[in-house]
Every structure is written in C-alpha cells, then in structure tokens.
Design brief:
single chain, 165 residues, alpha/beta, 24% helix
C-alpha cells in the first residue's frame, strides 16, 4: 500500500506544530489512522542519561528498541552516517490512512505552508510548487489558495480533496 502523505511546512514560529496537532486530532476524529514524521534541525534526544536504553546507546548500540505494554520506541544512532531520506523513514511506518509530515521543506511531497504575519518571514509558496495552499492569520497574497490558520476543518477538507481521502 502506498501511503497518503501530506506536509505542513513553514518558517520557525509559523504555527506548524499547532496545525499538525489539530489536523491529527481532526482526522483521527473522522476515523482515519494517522502517523506523523517531524523533522528537527537540531540535536535531540528522546532518552535520558542513566536509563537502561540510554546506557545501551552510549555503550555503542546502533539501534535500541524499547517496548512495554503501552508503546514501542526505536532509537537509531547514525554515528556519522547521513540522515536517512524521507522516503526511507516513510518505509519504516506501519500502513495508515494518512502520514502528516512536519518540516521537510525541500522534499517533493504536497504541503500546506503555515504562515504568521508576526514572524515577518516571506512566503515560501511563490518559489515552491509543492506548496498547494497557505494557512495564514493574514492575507499574504499567495499564488495558491489561502485558508485561515485556525480553520482546521477547512484545511483538513483541502487535504482530503488533494489526496482523494
């Protein structure tokens, strides 16, 4: 099964994460299964010093799988290897109705650009044909449809039409 994929992109503090959160809740509320991928431009850690899994990684393990009755987490240490491409990360996910992707500005999947006037950042949409709409708190004069950043239902409907969901 080919995953249905849609992205939310934009500059820092543009409202991407809040929009992602609302879209996940909206689509799940409609009965869809949803997974997400979030790109980070900085070092991050989901583990904590002293925990067993952290000690396994620090000892040199390439991958650590942590499992319980409520969740499974897999951590992969790149140890100097290049960051995996988005298509490889998508291949790691179990099949769902929709994968929402936060970030990954330069990837070729369709996206909505989150935009807040207060950031003072220019729109990405005019230079990026993968951006199909802008979700904004203003009227930024985009070359694509503009939806209100807080109108989750309209944004979700746009994505549904785009993907044929």
């Amino acid at each position: 099964m080919t995953q249905k994929v849609y992205g939310v992109t934009g500059w820092k503090n543009s409202g991407k994460t809040g929009l992602m959160e609302r879209l996940v809740a909206h689509f799940v509320g409609e009965g869809l299964t949803v997974s997400t991928i979030k790109h980070a431009h900085h070092r991050f850690d989901v583990d904590h010093p002293g925990r067993d899994s952290y000690r396994h990684r620090e000892a040199g393990a390439s991958e650590v799988l942590l499992a319980s009755g409520t969740r499974v987490a897999q951590m992969t240490e790149l140890r100097g290897a290049p960051e995996p491409p988005l298509k490889d990360l998508l291949g790691r996910l179990a099949p769902v109705d929709l994968v929402l992707i936060e970030g990954y500005k330069r990837s070729g999947h369709p996206k909505i650009e989150a935009h807040r006037a207060a950031t003072g950042q220019p729109l990405i949409a005019p230079q990026d044909p993968t951006i199909r709409a802008v979700a904004s708190d203003s009227e930024p004069g985009a070359p694509v449809p503009v939806l209100h950043l807080d109108d989750t239902a309209a944004i979700a409907a746009f994505i549904r039409v785009e993907l044929g969901l």
